[in-house]
Amino acid sequence: MLLSAAKTRRKILFRKAKLAEEAKRYDHMLRFMKEILEITNPDTDLSPKERCLLGAAFKNFVIHPRNSLSLATVSTGSWIKSPKRSIAGSYLLTSRTEISSACSEIVQLIDRRLLPAAISKESKVYYLTLKEISAGIWQR
Fold first, then answer.
1. N or C: more exposed end of the chain, with fewer CB within 10 A?
2. Is 64's pLDDT higher than 60?
3. Mean pLDDT over all residues of the chain?
4. Model confidence at 93, in pLDDT bands (50, 70, 90)?
5. What integer pLDDT is reported at residue 15 of this predicted model?
6. How far apart are CA 86 and CA 92, in angstroms?
7. Could you give all domains of the chain from N- to C-terminal order, each with its CATH number?
8. Rounded distance between C-alpha atoms, residue 104 and residue 110, angstroms
9. For residue 65, what pLDDT band results from cuts at 50, 70 and 90?
10. CA pair distance 80, 17, nearest whole angstrom
11. How many CB atoms lie within 10 A of CB 63?
């Protein structure tokens, strides 16, 4: 009975993540995918659909703030020689820290949970690719 309850919860979370994707609420999408990982046996790999949804959640969750950071950097470029410089610097630092934290979290999730449980080569390649993407985003 407990096993079926966990499977049911997993399906519900997956559906919620899909709904969050349609609503472009990537923060919610990522949270639902993390919940799936929390309730799943640590030795169990994600299904291909779950894997794909996790990757989409992470990429969209990070890419939008990164694009906003780029726009803010351009917008505040003229502030360098003004009293507003410290405001711009503080805001940009906060944004960079948020992006860095999200990337670090996904790398840890991949290293500690996803790669050890990956059964197929396809899963391993997917997780390693996602890790590389995250490292690339983090360093930009």
1. N
2. yes
3. 86
4. confident
5. 97
6. 10
7. 2-139 (1.20.190.20)
8. 10
9. confident
10. 41
11. 14
Q: What is the pLDDT of residue 1?
A: 47
Q: Is 95 or 13 the better-scoring residue by pLDDT?
A: 13
Q: How far apart are CA 56 and CA 46, in angstroms?
A: 14
Instruction: Read off the tokens for 53.
Output: 């949804």
Token pair, residue 75, equals 């917008």
CA–CA separation, 56 and 95 (whole Å): 21
Pull the structure tokens for residue 98: 């948020």
With a CB cutoff of 8 Å and minimum separation 6, the contacts of 43 are 117
CA distance 78 to 129: 37
Write down the H helix ranges in the chain.
2-22, 26-39, 48-75, 85-109, 115-117, 121-139
What is the distance, to the nearest Å, from the Cα of residue 127 to the centroid of all Cα atoms in its chain? Answer: 12
